[in-house]
Amino acid sequence: MNKLIKDIKNNLIVIIFIIIYFALTKIIFGYSCIFRILFHIKCPGCGLTRALKSLLKGDITKAMHYNYSIIFWLILLIIFIINRYIKPLKVNVLVLFIITVLITLIRYILIVFFNEPIF
How many CB atoms sit inside 10 A of residue 92's CB? Predict the structure, then answer.
């Protein structure tokens, strides 16, 4: 718990900036995605927030519809939290992060260019 508090204190300015960014962009543009604001198209992570909300409500089918890479992001987050705050694991979190990003990008490419998701 001390490590978590220390991390929050060390990154407090960044955390406050992110909260302000999300609040202002939501008020001004109606959404917070910088990719969508700049390029006016959906980003590779589009639907992740709605997918997470659906998962938290227990609606797995709806979550998969929004963005099925949410499963990989949640696994990565859980492994990161365990590795950082509970017990170091013999897992390379950076490699898992790269794999998760690649899965998200492949999903995006399939949808945008071929109009066909993997699932």
Answer: 10
